[in-house]
């Protein structure tokens, strides 16, 4: 922070040119692309949308395979039923998701953005619809410029209707993860959805329609937080989409059979295809820009042009900053993938993934909470023994009913009684609360609080048990 | 409801509040710069050759948001309480809101509770659904003293056994909850003296077969017959009409050691069960009485 000399702070200086900081959106008409990376993106769209649109409909054990029942606080995922008490597993999933993002970004840049992000995926779907109805880039631009006539109205209406249908279906599916989708379909068809369901279906539908239909790259440029911090995870060895300036420059138009090297030209024929296909409307030949979402559309497009010109492919390709600066040859690029940062991410990610897997595998479908009575901490029975009263909450997380017995340890001659007959039957995926009291002889007991353990054990399957800690108070 | 000692302070607070809100708006207006397309002034700070601090006007939508907050504040203060003792034009109060919500709750749940009012208490006690409701009510309103298992505590009777101070008929239980009870035993130390209390205590302990000093108990017997039988009956089995406990069994409301019995006799006891009639209403009490009655069934 070096203030230049002779300037007095606070003194108003000569005016400078005012700039409006708001930039109006220019419509981008991305041209369609074919090629290996486009196919990979189609695969990404197919996989993610298969999970999204199909999973809610699948049935497992006569119940939805995937349902996040917020009302009853039960989350059904494949064969598991998760309760709020299982929140730690969600933490694990989120940590894995975050670390995976770090790892993939460090290795290959914004690969998530380019191939799997919902914004990209839905934009892609909406652009297919647009192309199917209005045609490719050139026709779209022509249609936009043409005066309003019957054909234009028809096409625009058709496009927006199709967009809206997909968006509404998306919103409906989204809510179908939280309300059993078959019931929701009935309600939806008979206009009897609840107020919140209606709100979310239309809210999610409208956001899909707005984001994927109208805002598109604006979401990535101005709204998305990941876009901002993903670039922080780049380093000079990260795979990025690069234009090989050494090979391409000086760019220029040429005849296909001309000896362009003799004319002093590089490989770039300046056809502008890479700009036309770019969904964010940038020119990759200016180098890496923050707008680039790593979708590799320009790679596919440029390779097609190179093939037509019979030049080698890869004028625009996945490469790294270090390779471009000539620090080492391209063929040793793979070796540089295994750098400390990547290895560390991989190690942590693997460890947490294994830990989560083991934790879920070893999870016992039984939880218990012990809540001590808040006022009468200790009571004397008619036989002169000391009694502590608790409320025992047993949560059976399994899809079968189970019977449990209680036992206590931590003190000599500690007796557990419940107000209801043991074994305690708990219905599938539900909670039962019973009154439990611990009774002990005050002889040879020091005053104060003695830690004790209560073991809740399944009668039919002794492997299933839970251990809860509580305390026994002696007056 | 006013917390102010005089009207002056109410006006004082209201005045400062209004002046602050309006002052914010005025201040904003005073320092806002006209938006022109002319050159922008700089503050004269310059770092690293090109980095300058401009004196640009705030974005218009931003200043509008500020103005809207001022308007919102004034509207809010005119509708809701917030200016001294002024109650607001809507007449809202937290107490009023509570009463409204309670009214809605009553309308929602009363029909469910009232369904059981027509039924006999024993019938209600046999209905598992009503028992579950009774248990939830018990846990909310009664478990603080009587324990979540209704087992009572020192000074609070055990409701889950067969021993009743006032009698265990379901209607009696309902009467106890509705009208409350006052289990008063006067202090006897002034009458009996310390030695006399000790003797009577040992006699009382002997009645239920507890450890006691036979000599003291023998000396205590006539004193007991003179002073205590009026309430505890000649048989010492207590009197449900007064809530006088049975002294021949092994149930001790205030503890059955010699020291505790001496304390009870010399200082007296003053057990209070509050009346729940106004707070809970008939229907809930009906369910509670049935639940409490069901606890000792079959024991």
Structural commentary:
The complex is a heterodimer of chains A (475) and B (299). Chain A is α+β, with helices and mostly antiparallel strands. Helix content of chain A is 40%, strand content 19%. Chain A contains 15 helices and 16 strands. In chain A, the strands form five sheets. In chain A, strands 8, 9, 10, 12 and 14 form a five-stranded antiparallel sheet that branches. A four-stranded antiparallel sheet of chain A has the order 13-11-15-16, with no helix packed on it. In chain A, α1 crosses α4 (118-134) and α2 (87-108) packs antiparallel against α15 (340-362). The longest helix of chain A has 26 residues, at 150-175. Mean pLDDT of chain A is 88; it is low at 1-10. With 299 residues, chain B is mainly α. Chain B folds into three domains: 2-79, no CATH class; 106-180 and 274-296, Orthogonal Bundle (Cytochrome Bc1 Complex, Chain D, domain 2), CATH 1.10.760.10; 184-273, Cytochrome c-like domain (Cytochrome Bc1 Complex, Chain D, domain 2). Chain B has helices at 7-31, 60-79, 94-117, 121-125, 128-141, 143-146, 170-179, 189-207, 214-227, 229-232, 258-267, 277-296; strands spanning 42-47, 51-54, 181-185, 269-273. Chains A and B meet through β9 and β10 of A and β1 and α6 of B.
Secondary structure layout:
The complex is a heterodimer of chains A (475) and B (299).
Chain A: H1 36-54, E1 59-60, E2 63-64, E3 66-69, E4 74-77, E5 80-82, H2 87-108, H3 111-115, H4 118-134, H5 137-145, H6 150-175, H7 181-189, H8 195-215, H9 217-223, H10 225-230, E6 240-243, H11 245-248, H12 273-277, H13 297-308, E7 316-319, H14 321-324, H15 340-362, E8 366-372, E9 379-380, E10 386-396, E11 402-409, E12 415-418, E13 424-426, E14 430-440, E15 448-458, E16 465-474
Antiparallel strand pairs in A: 1-2, 3-4, 4-5, 6-7, 8-10, 9-10, 10-14, 11-13, 11-15, 12-14, 15-16
Chain B: H1 7-31, E1 42-47, E2 51-54, H2 60-79, H3 94-117, H4 121-125, H5 128-141, H6 143-146, H7 170-179, E3 181-185, H8 189-207, H9 214-227, H10 229-232, H11 258-267, E4 269-273, H12 277-296
Helix pairs in contact in B: 1-2, 3-12, 5-12, 7-12, 8-9, 8-11
